[in-house]
Amino acid sequence: MTESALTVRGVSKSFGRVQALRGVSLDIGHGEFVSFLGPSGCGKTTLLRIIAGFETPNAGEVLIGGKPITHLPAFRRPVGIVFQNLALFPHLSVASNVGFGLAVRREAAAVAKRKIEDVLALVELQGFGDRRVHQLSGGQRQRVALARALIMQPDVLLLDEPLSALDLKLRRQLQGELKRLQRRTGTTFVFVTHDQEEALAMSDRVAVFRNGQIDQVGAPEAVYRNPATRFVAEFVGETNIIELQRQDGRAVLANLGGITMPAAQEVPMTGLVSLRPENVVLLPADDPSGVAAKVADLEFGGMTLRLLAEIPGCVQPIRAAMPAERAPAGLAVGAPVRLGFDLASAAILPGAA
Amino acid sequence: MAAIISGTGLALSPAARLLLALPKALAIGAFLFSLLGLMIASFTDAGGGASLALYHDLLNSHATRLAIWRTLWVATMVTLICLVTAYPLATFIARSRHRDLMLILVISPWLTSLVIRTFGWVVLLGNRGVINQILMGIGLTSEPIQIIFTPFALVLGLAHVLLPFMVISILSVMMQIDRRLTEAGMSLGAGPVETFFRVTLPLSAPGALSGCALVYLISAGAIVTPLLLGGLRDRVIGTQIFQEIFALYDFPRAAALALILVVTSLIAITPIQIAEAWLRGRISRI
User: Fold this and answer.
1) What is the span of the domain harbouring residue A121?
2) Chain B residue closest in CA terms to A92
3) Does this model's pTM top 0.95?
4) Rounded Cα distance, B221 and A55, in Å
5) Is residue B9 included in any domain, yes or no?
6) C-alpha distances in Å from residue B260, one per residue of B15, B45, B185, B271
7) Structural domain tally of chain B?
8) What does the pLDDT look like over B199-253, one tens digit per residue?
9) Chain B residues inside the 8 Å CB shell of A83
10) Is A87 in the B-facing interface, judged by CB distances under 8 Å?
């Protein structure tokens, strides 16, 4: 356990009647990049604020490097934070913002100056020290906020949706920079986001929050391929949720024209299956293994083509996705297609969650 | 002072601006008109010719010079006392969950008239007042101590009456400070006191300076409180004007005094206003 940079044990928190966190536990290793992913109101930001020391949990504890810090005030915790709105000090210059923590620590002016220059160089803002905050672009402000937190060399850096206010392109660029910065400094990052693509792209591990609990923690690929619950399957990426039914002692995907689940998997007789759109393929019209369907909607997304197909007799339309250049010619709304299902890649969801 | 009202920075259409400018022009026009009347009256001698005699007289009179000096001194003290007491109060209210209730408590003295509020101090500080009764009761003194009708009583009374202005001025700016800024300060290792001095104070200073200007002006021009608590022996300009008008019927002299008050107040207020503008300019709007 002492290996962990950050440990959260059975943390609960309620605001009045609203239970924001219900006994959350989590271990984060040194130098790890972990995302807290979930919709708004799922408790991810509350947990972040508890780790930072801005909120006190009703139960449970928080440890950093094995030391309990639950009752330490925020200013004594070896934790940095980058806020959603950045919270740069509007009355201070860039250098004074970045050097704020050093000034608080009464660090010698010469040492502080060098450290400020170093960290500004690290975030590629050399020579910006004398600027005022309003003279910076959104991306530059972002980096000032990062520099201000990183200069303190925190054991854990908390990031509360710091990219959500930026436009998509800048966001992608900063995601990459953030990731590189994290690798270079070796700092443990806890990144809160509601954007599943962002979480998958950046993290070593993703913790998916729902309703004050963590549904699943794992590497992005594991969470995507083997979602633990229906919520995770639907929140992380797109999916088709298909009901399993028992017919003649076999598990059958009733909605897909009675296809039997491959016996290779340990299949429960009832439950749900999550099948990603990329695991639904278009087959040649004469392929007997396919299921006949009709295209209900097409969406060209540049790299990928997504389509919604209706199987006669089935209420639930099926989502499929494929590389755009591999789409067969003559694909149009209303056109007949044959769907094939890569059931080996499907994830069985426990229960009817 | 204007910052209290204009602090929100609403975007207004030209028509709306014009509509707002009208009452402003009316108020300023009326003020300038009466000021002009005062000036003319104070610069006119008995024969109707232009003269500086009144000012010459006033500024050479020891009593008037003392009153001017006392006015400046009292107003400065009141301002400083309000500033120092209002800051913790405003900080407390800004953080409180019952902010609205606290605000009502702060403003509630305004529900009674100024005379009655000031009279409360007479009851407390008078020669047969509560404080002297207690002091004599426990044997600390055999004779009542002269508290009322001293500058001390005056400063105390004015500070009490004007404290809400200062609290509201500071609070109006403090409530606009993002809570995350103080949290950011904390996350960078600054305790509550250090965060206050490094973040909250510099960001709320413009509001505090507005409050200073407001409190200074009101105390410098006060009449009722100085009459009731300061008495007529230790006069301030306000009570002297009162005396000239209601006891001596010397309107030109009152006018000259009023002008002296306006000029000295302007001299005192200008640096505060400049400092406020400078501070506001230094805070990035982000």
Assistant:
1) 4-235
2) B283
3) no
4) 48
5) no
6) 39, 17, 46, 18
7) 2
8) 999 999 999 999 999 999 999 999 999 999 988 788 899 999 999 989 998 888 9
9) 180, 183-184
10) yes
